[in-house]
């Protein structure tokens, strides 16, 4: 196999033979003819199939990008093999189309499903093979797999004794998730998904398949682990390290209301959740509620899991967080895969196999990191803003544990020591007539502005690329926010590996700063 330098030189030479890359997009007919010549037969176009919109929308999780006026692709191609991906990419590239690669469609800004120039989607949903090696504790998985399917397969193959450190939403595609980091309930114990990447298979701009991107290709391997999606090629498969999980896990979930009570509880949470044993994960979901008397107040759900029995969980909370008042009735004891389903708000583990979310919404999201505990006054001020809108919410997710021990430059994902927790903000609405989009988004931006002096800067305001936010700015401004001090290295790698910026989206790592 050629080494990284050889591939890079080959790439530079071959790019010179593809002037069509910078030409205007070809017609859909010529693209279809190319696909047929190359025996890529599973595709749909707006005029050729009544299923086009259904295929487009199936993996588009943010319904904002299903509305009228949003750009649509010239074609959606659904390959089943790596060879078909290579052939499809050749037709897309030679026709001058922009490319969007879609794994699970969870881009918060719809960036895997939309573009500002004529584009084609290569949707990897049909590439979802899983090979679990229990003895050596790794899994090979194709990029079209959803996390729920993957978790279920790992648990089934290992008799519920192995797991994977990744996110909580069952329908997230593995591809973009790993390239953005992949934070979840096991991250305080085992790091993010990107920390557990062992190898990847990547198709480059000229169609070459690098079968084993690993430590032998240190720059590209480093960038793939948290450097954001849409910049590094078409990743068709991943080899991920599996981790040990206990036979007994307790999921807990309890609700509290009242602005003052929640202010006190969340203030205390900041000194408990980030420093607790890494086997304990406690998150907080906060949203305004309307009481039976029609008065706005705050509600909060404290949820997570602990590696132990219900009795052990209750005893631990009584020791470190008695103010919360956790009881056995707030807990559900089971194995790891049952806890995974519970955290995803699913009734049973088999529901993890559903490839499409049972409910979707219109939403806008933002994120922050917090390195200095928020005062009660600051929390109360945020809640005052939140009580003006019952369609907005915040989630606090704790850091600490192993996350504080991994160097910020060990992989591209930079958010490590010093962070107490991460914040996700969302404004969510049921349909496009429920409330004006611009009012809800303006409210969210107001809350985000209020939080500005309270959160982490490195030196730009630190945000999470998997909660991608076009408000952060262009690719340079966004890169500094998403990747901090790692951004400069990512730009150098991008300039060497993809100097013509063939793989790009509005906030992907650019070739220069």
TrEMBL record:
Pfam family for this entry, one: FAD_binding_4
Signal peptide as annotated in the record: 1-24
Superkingdom, natural source: Eukaryota
Keyword Signal belongs to the record: yes
SUPFAM superfamilies xrefs: FAD-binding/transporter-associated domain-like
PANTHER family, sorted: OS08G0158400 PROTEIN (PTHR32448)
Molecular functions per Gene Ontology: FAD binding; oxidoreductase activity
Family: Belongs to the oxygen-dependent FAD-linked oxidoreductase family.
Sequence ranges assigned to domain FAD-binding PCMH-type in this UniProt record: 69-245
Keywords carried by this UniProt record: FAD, Flavoprotein, Glycoprotein, Signal
Cofactors named for this entry: FAD
Designated name of the protein: FAD-binding PCMH-type domain-containing protein
């Amino acid at each position: 196999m050629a080494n990284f330098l050889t591939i890079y030189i080959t790439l530079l030479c071959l790019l010179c033979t593809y002037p069509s890359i910078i030409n205007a997009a070809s017609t859909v007919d010529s693209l279809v003819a190319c696909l047929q010549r190359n025996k890529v037969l599973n595709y749909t176009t707006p005029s050729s199939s009544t299923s086009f919109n259904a295929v487009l929308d199936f993996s588009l999780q943010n319904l904002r990008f299903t509305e009228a006026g949003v750009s649509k692709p010239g074609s959606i191609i659904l390959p089943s093999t790596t060879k078909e991906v290579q052939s499809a990419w050749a037709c897309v590239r030679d026709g001058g189309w922009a490319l969007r690669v879609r794994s699970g469609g969870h881009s918060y800004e719809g960036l895997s499903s939309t573009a500002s120039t004529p584009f084609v989607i290569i949707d990897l949903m049909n590439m979802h093979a899983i090979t679990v090696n229990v003895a050596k504790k790794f899994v090979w998985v194709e990029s079209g797999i959803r996390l729920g399917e993957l978790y279920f397969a790992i648990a089934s193959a290992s008799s519920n004794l192995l797991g994977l450190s990744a996110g909580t939403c069952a329908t997230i595609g593995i591809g973009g998730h790993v390239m953005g980091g992949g934070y979840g309930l096991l991250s305080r114990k085992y790091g993010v998904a990107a920390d557990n990447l062992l190898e990847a298979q990547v198709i480059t701009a000229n169609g070459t398949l690098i079968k084993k991107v690993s430590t032998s290709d240190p720059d590209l391997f480093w960038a793939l682990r948290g450097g954001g999606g849409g910049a590094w090629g078409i990743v068709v498969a991943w080899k991920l390290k599996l981790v040990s999980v206990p036979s007994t896990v307790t999921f807990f979930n309890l609700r509290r209301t009242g602005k003052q009570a929640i202010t006190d509880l969340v203030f205390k949470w900041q000194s408990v959740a980030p420093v607790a044993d890494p086997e304990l994960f406690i998150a907080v979901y906060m949203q305004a509620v309307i009481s039976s008397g029609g008065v706005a107040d705050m509600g909060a759900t404290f949820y997570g899991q602990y590696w132990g029995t219900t009795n052990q969980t209750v005893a631990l909370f009584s020791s470190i967080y008695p103010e919360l008042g956790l009881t056995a009735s707030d807990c559900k004891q089971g194995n790891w895969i049952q806890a995974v389903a519970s955290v995803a708000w699913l009734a049973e583990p088999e529901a993890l196999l559903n490839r499409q979310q049972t409910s979707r919404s219109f939403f806008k999201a933002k994120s922050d990191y917090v390195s200095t505990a928020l005062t009660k006054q600051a929390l109360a001020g945020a809640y005052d803003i939140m009580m003006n809108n019952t369609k907005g919410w915040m989630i606090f997710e704790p850091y600490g544990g192993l996350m504080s021990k991994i160097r910020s430059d060990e992989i591209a994902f930079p958010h490590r020591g010093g962070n107490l927790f991460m914040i996700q903000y969302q404004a969510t609405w049921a349909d496009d007539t429920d409330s004006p989009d611009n009012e809800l988004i303006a409210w969210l931006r107001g809350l985000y502005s209020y939080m500005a002096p309270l959160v982490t800067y490195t030196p730009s305001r630190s945000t999470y690329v998997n909660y991608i936010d076009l408000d952060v700015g262009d690719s340079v401004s966004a890169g500094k926010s998403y990747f901090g001090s790692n951004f400069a290295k990512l730009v150098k790698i991008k300039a060497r590996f993809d100097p013509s910026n063939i793989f790009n989206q509005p906030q992907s790592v650019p070739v220069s700063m």
